[in-house]
Amino acid sequence: MPAQHFAHKQKIYIATSGFALATIIWCGFFIPKSVQAAPAENSVEKLNQQIESQKTEIDKINKRIELYQKRIKESQQEAVNLRGQIKLLDNEMAKKQLDIDLSTKQIAKTNLEIQLTTQEIAGQEERIEKQRSSIRYLLQLVYRSDQVSYLEIILTNNTFSDFYDYYQHLQDIQARLQRSLQKLKGLQTALVLQQDTLKTKKSEDEKLKDTLEQQRRDLAEQSVHQATILKETERSEKKFANYVDQLKVEQQQINQDIVGIEKKIREELKRQQEEADRIAAFGKPRLQWPTNGRYITSYFHDPEYPYRNIFEHPAIDVRTAQGSTVRAAESGYVAKVKDGGAKGYSYLMIVHNDGLSTVYGHVSSFDVQENQFVKQGQVVARSGGTPGTRGAGNLTSGPHLHFEVRNNGIPVNPLSYLPSE
Predict the structure, then answer these.
(1) Which residues of 362-399 form beta strands (DSSP E)?
(2) H helices within 37-159, ranges in order?
(3) What is the average pLDDT value for the chain, to the nearest integer?
(4) Contact 339, 346 (CB under 8 A)
(5) Do 221 and 78 have their domain in common?
(6) What pLDDT was estimated at residue 35?
(7) Are residues 9 and 101 in the same domain?
(8) Structural domain contains residue 55
(9) Prediction pTM value
(10) Average pLDDT in the 323-350 region?
(11) What is the 3-state secondary structure (H, E, C) of 132-162?
(12) Are 348 and 301 in the same domain?
């Protein structure tokens, strides 16, 4: 090939390469962000404004909830008569409605955050693809330059200045390529974080929806509870006083039965060598949840328990459908099976080793008998608690299991003995 022709071809290549690089800088990845992403930013700004609006509404609802919590605490002191009890229930229902409103707003905020994160991920993926395109083009330029030796370049350029310009051009490409690779790595790292955020927000959204559904049930049950009290007392202060006295007597009798029978069973348990060996090997009895459900409608010594002015709530109430299976939380002897009949309160008690006993209340039917030994997980009863059904008694507003744990006859918090998951 004639030297003049080769030199002419090389100069054309250099010029073409420089033009291509300039094109990349002008049209591709190096466009200023303020121009490149203007439409997306407008949308992001709108979503951020909506999220801030939801946050403001959530703060307002939280303040109202705090107010009703204060009112509930005050009205608990007044709940010694029918008027005070109804006032307490009204405040609790108002708070539960606010809880529902709060969850609804939180769900709306989370959905907006999911939209925002989804949009940010789409923009990030677009930027990554543009960066990759830029890197591919730069790699092509580097590859082409590698096909020509420095000797050829020196021979085909008229002056050393031309050679130096070409060398600087290659160095510039290499530097831009390195920066582009580093930026791509940063973009990909940010994308992974955004994807993790999206996954977390979706999980949070599902939990909030579950909470909202439970709160709606709580409000419905509270409405039934209030209606039951009004029906039983017929808005009469005298009948309400009798109603409260009956509840006190019933609770005292239940407590006496549990404490008295437990003492009798305790000696029998000591003779159970198999249980003693297991306790020696594994330590304290490890309870299991007596129901499939885990949602607690009332906690141990719950400050919002509607009858706290009469007695402290000695158990946890676990929501479970009417007629669901109730299982022994631990192996032991069935000490008491109390059938309250069509209108009374039904419960059973199981005495375990190491000073523990468990009580299962508001049951609709029994699967075991007194003095029967049961193993952990064995079906012992069927749940109840729906107002007006067999075994529910008066202290109920909806289907649930009243679950007590006692240590040497004294009620203790069941959650301290149950697995957290």
Answers:
(1) 363-366, 373-374, 379-383
(2) 38-78, 82-146, 150-156
(3) 77
(4) yes
(5) yes
(6) 33
(7) yes
(8) yes
(9) 0.54
(10) 94
(11) HHHHHHHHHHHHHHHCCCHHHHHHHCCCHHH
(12) yes
Give the whole-angstrom CA distance, residue 378 versus residue 326. Answer: 8
Query: Are 387 and 322 in the same domain?
Result: yes
Does residue 421 sit within a domain? no
Q: Would the CA dihedral through 325, 351, 270, 417 be positive or negative?
A: positive
Residue 339, by phi and psi: left (phi above 0), alpha (psi -120 to 50) or beta? beta
> How far apart, in whole angstroms, are the C-alpha atoms of residue 24 and residue 35?
16
Contact in structure between 29 and 131 (CB atoms under 8 Å): yes
Q: Distance between CA atoms of 386 and 224, rounded to whole angstroms?
A: 10
Here the tokens at position 219 are 């409000």
Structural domain span for residue 221: 3-231
Instruction: Take residue 324 and report the two structure tokens written for it.
Output: 């669901």
Residues 198 and 271 occupy one common structural domain: no
Is residue 379 scored above 90 in pLDDT? yes
Number of domains making up the chain? 2
Domain assignment present for residue 299? The answer is yes
Find the radius of gyration of the CA atoms of the chain: 37
Q: How far apart are CA 59 and CA 21, in angstroms?
A: 53
**Do 12 and 126 reside in the same domain of the chain?**
yes
Distance of CA 256 to the CA centre of its chain: 40
Contacts of residue 409, Cβ cutoff 8 Å, sequence gap at least 6: 258, 259, 262, 263, 357
Shared-domain flag, residues 148 and 276: no
The CA–CA distances, whole Å, from 161 to 8, 156, 168, 222 equal 16, 12, 10, 90
Structural domain includes residue 88: yes
Least confident among 3-12, 97-106, 351-360: 3-12
Residue 98 pairs in a beta bridge with none
CATH code of 242's domain? 2.70.70.10
Same domain, 266 and 151: no
CA pair distance 205, 28, nearest whole angstrom: 38
Q: What is the DSSP string of 184-205?
A: HHHHHHHHHHHHHHHHHHHHHH
What pLDDT is stored for residue 126 in this prediction? 84
Are 327 and 320 in contact, with CB atoms under 8 Å apart?
no
